[in-house]
Design brief:
8-stranded antiparallel β-barrel; disordered N terminus; 1 helix; alpha+beta; Lipocalin
């Protein structure tokens, strides 16, 4: 019985290591100069900062910064930091809202960041950011 316990424990440990190796756990900062909502694009300076299990949306409005902080509850996809290509999907937590964030860029393509926010029965709002820069601390 002792051997069976050790085998199960070791198997769970190896499985956990494999999961953590596959989950992209790196930090970055995105800079955006425009925002599209409801098919309307407007000049709107934003910074999206991913640190640990948190995504911060810093909105730069008339000399002040408004920050919305979203805890990340789930991460899927993969990202190559050398070429800044891949596809990452985050499930974010904000009480009363269903929120997600997607970051994509294919080889030679445009860096695309989209935040989806849905509250109750209201229609989903898609915020598409015009990303001008990505940096890794």
């Amino acid at each position: 019985m002792s051997y069976l316990y050790k085998i199960i424990t070791l198997s769970l440990f190896i499985y956990t290591i494999q999961l953590s190796a596959q989950t992209p756990q790196f930090d970055y900062t995105l800079t955006s100069d425009k925002l599209s909502v409801l098919e309307k694009t407007q000049l709107f300076s934003s910074t999206l900062i991913k640190v640990g299990n948190t995504l911060k949306w810093v909105q730069h409005v008339k000399g002040t910064n408004n920050t919305i902080t979203y805890p990340i509850t789930k991460i899927a996809g993969g990202w190559n930091m050398n070429s800044s290509t891949g596809n990452l999907s985050y499930t974010l937590y904000k009480e009363g809202f269903k929120t997600s964030f997607n970051l994509t860029r294919m080889e030679g393509g445009v860096l695309k960041a989209v935040m989806s926010i849905k509250q109750g029965q209201s229609p989903e709002l898609l915020y598409t950011f015009n990303i001008t820069n990505i940096t890794y601390p």
